[in-house]
Amino acid sequence: MLADRLSKKVAYGALADFYAALLTDKQRELLAMYCNEDLSLSEIAGRENISRQAVSEHLNRAYLRLDSLEAQLQMFTRFREMRDAVTACLHHLSQVEATADTSMHLDQAQIILRRHMTSEEA
Length: 122
Hints:
- This protein is mainly alpha-helical.
- The chain is 81% helix and 0% strand.
- The protein has helices at residues 2-19, 25-36, 41-48, 52-73, 75-94, 103-121.
């Protein structure tokens, strides 16, 4: 059960990275406290001076909105697919034995892909 809650927090935290601007201010704020700061519903309720039930309702509406946005736009799914493709390309490039003529180009391709992966993860 704990793993499920943790997975849910991580998953919705990742979706929020893509779609937070499309949530209400309150949903964005509460989701950040819950997913990023790892506060409990009770801790958030105390901080916001609202009921635990109100926190839960705001979060559930945020989850529904995030699910709907991902179903329609598929940005997170495409990001993961692209990240996996870049990782596969890096793996394949690392298996190539370059000649003197191709070594610089191979190295540059790997640098570009790694830089892209690093900037996407930040």
